[in-house]
């Protein structure tokens, strides 16, 4: 079975690649992440994926475009639904590449993160799978969360502290102030 794995970042790829390969699947990675901000962060993640893919002989498909404007046009004034837009954009590109490349299925490392909306990712993936005629392969990679972290630390891999978008970067630093009556 030939599977296209959308990769958001190198640390999140560790466990999914391992599991899919252990199941005897031929895994190809796909890097496309127009949500990442700033550009320096985008480049760091891209290079970390490149280094990791080379180290484990993972064949990759690169869409190395910094399409920040695409992400912003889809998210502005819809900030509450920005993740839906972001997941859809990346998974749609993955499904399109999977169809064109005659893959048996596609999936994403987003299913590894405990911080992503797992159910929404699955719903979008299944819907796009039907639309493009390539099944979305569901696997709950969150069970390998701790293992992926340990391996990424052992490999001294770049580990980002936010999902990548400008909104999550803001949330990382600007916590709402809770006022209490004194």
Radius of gyration: 16 Å
Helix content: 40-55%
CATH topology: Rossmann fold
CATH class wording: Alpha Beta
Largest sheet: 4 strands, parallel
Number of domains: 1
Report low-confidence residues grouped into runs of 5 or more: none
The number of distinct helices, counting runs of at least 4 residues, comes to 7
Q: How many E-type strands?
A: 4
Strand order of the largest sheet: 3-2-1-4
Question: How would you describe this protein?
Answer:
- The protein is an alpha/beta fold and 182 residues long.
- The protein has one domain: Rossmann fold.
- It has seven helices and four strands; from the N terminus they run E-H-E-H-E-H-H-E-H-H-H.
- A four-stranded parallel sheet has the order 3-2-1-4, with helices on both faces.
- Helix 1 links the parallel strand 1 and strand 2.
- Helix 1 packs across helix 6.
- The N and C termini lie far apart (63 Å).
- The model has no long low-confidence stretch (mean pLDDT 89).
């Amino acid at each position: 079975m030939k599977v296209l794995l959308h990769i958001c970042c190198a640390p999140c790829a560790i466990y999914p690649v391992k599991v899919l390969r252990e199941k005897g699947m031929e895994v190809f990675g796909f890097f496309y992440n127009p949500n990442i901000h700033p550009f320096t962060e985008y480049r760091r993640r891209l290079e970390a994926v490149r280094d990791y893919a080379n180290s484990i002989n993972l064949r990759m498909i690169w869409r190395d475009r910094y399409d920040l404007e695409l992400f912003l046009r889809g998210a502005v004034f819809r900030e509450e639904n920005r993740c839906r837009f972001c997941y859809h954009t990346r998974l749609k590109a993955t499904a399109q590449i999977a169809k064109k490349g005659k893959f048996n299925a596609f999936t994403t490392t987003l299913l590894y993160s405990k911080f992503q909306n797992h159910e929404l990712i699955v719903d979008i993936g299944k819907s796009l799978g039907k639309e493009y005629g390539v099944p979305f392969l569901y696997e709950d990679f969150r069970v390998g969360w701790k293992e992926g972290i340990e391996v990424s630390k052992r490999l001294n891999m770049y580990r980002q502290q936010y999902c990548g978008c400008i909104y999550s970067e803001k949330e990382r630093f600007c916590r709402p102030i809770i006022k209490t009556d004194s």
